[in-house]
Amino acid sequence: MAATHFFSLLLLLFFCFVFPSPCSATTRKLSALVQQQSLLLKYHNGPLLKGNITVNLVWYGKFSSTQRSIIVDFLNSLSSAKTRTSSPSVSSWWQTTGKYRGGSSSVVVGKQFLHNEYSLGKALKTSQLKALSSKAGYGNGGHVINVVLTSADVTVDGFCMSRCGTHGSGRVKKSRFAYAWVGNSVNQCPGYCAWPFHQPVYGPQTPPLVAPNGDVGVDGMVINLATVLGGTVTNPFNNGYFQGPAEAPLEAVSACTGIFGKGAYPGYPGEVLVDKTTGAGYNAVGVNGRKYLLPAMWDPQTSACKTPV
């Protein structure tokens, strides 16, 4: 049965930081992890996604061409040699995945499928996400990640309540493939899934950062897409790198939730760069002059969360 990974910890950790009294002892231990006290992701002897990886995209709902280009440019930045001389770069952030067992993971964007007529309606179940992802194919020797992206007017089981995205795996005959999903939260829960570009629903009401690409929902999607992709390549089949129970693991990026720069603490993303023209907050540069805010990733060489800046 395919392993599915949720973003429940994204909300759980944030609110337990802000309101620690209702949280259980287990939750307090998890909050300590984000403060980088004894953070260790264990390798569970399973395969990772290494080498050349094709990312196919399934756009479900209405996305503008500008919105699609923000995400495609991010994906093209992950393994782009053009940005490696820029500091900090999206590709240097992604290179941390190469420190995990098996070497580097080079990402290329594959096929794109537009489902702008809402063929399955505007309220999707998890099983439908998996079915949509399977339509993108599963060739390239299993080195494929099929990503479903849902627009702002589409609801998904658990979205905004326990997760901002998810990843897992499926099998068709003898072929196994990895898939992921991320939704646009701008109309539903930007304070949950697009923070720090929107004020949180609860907790310290510090001013939000300006979104680097001018789109709170899609810039938030990039953060969550970075999170699920980092988890997918280092724990694609639920037996790679993670800490905690396999049903709700802390993975390469989800272990570092809420950390975007040095000095981060609950409600504060940390020190990031500020665009002199737009005032936008960012910490990584991509192709076509794009700027992004990317979450910290756990570095297996230092056993700590590593930020781009």
Description:
The protein has 309 residues and is an alpha/beta fold. The chain contains 7 helices and 16 strands. The chain has helices spanning 8-18, 25-34, 65-77, 90-94, 126-134, 190-193, 216-234; strands spanning 4-6, 42-43, 51-60, 105-115, 123-124, 144-150, 155-156, 165-172, 175-183, 241-242, 273-274, 281-282, 284-285, 291-292, 297-299, 304-306. The strands form 6 sheets. A 6-stranded mixed beta sheet has the order 1-8-9-6-3-4. A hairpin with a 2-residue loop joins strand 8 (165-172) and strand 9. The protein is globular and about 50 Å long. The N and C termini lie far apart (39 Å). Mean pLDDT is 88; it is low at 1-36.
Topology:
Blueprint: E1 4-6, H1 8-18, H2 25-34, E2 42-43, E3 51-60, H3 65-77, H4 90-94, E4 105-115, E5 123-124, H5 126-134, E6 144-150, E7 155-156, E8 165-172, E9 175-183, H6 190-193, H7 216-234, E10 241-242, E11 273-274, E12 281-282, E13 284-285, E14 291-292, E15 297-299, E16 304-306
Parallel strand pairs: 3-4, 3-6, 5-7, 6-9
Antiparallel strand pairs: 1-8, 2-10, 8-9, 11-12, 13-14, 15-16
Helix pairs in contact: 1-2, 3-7
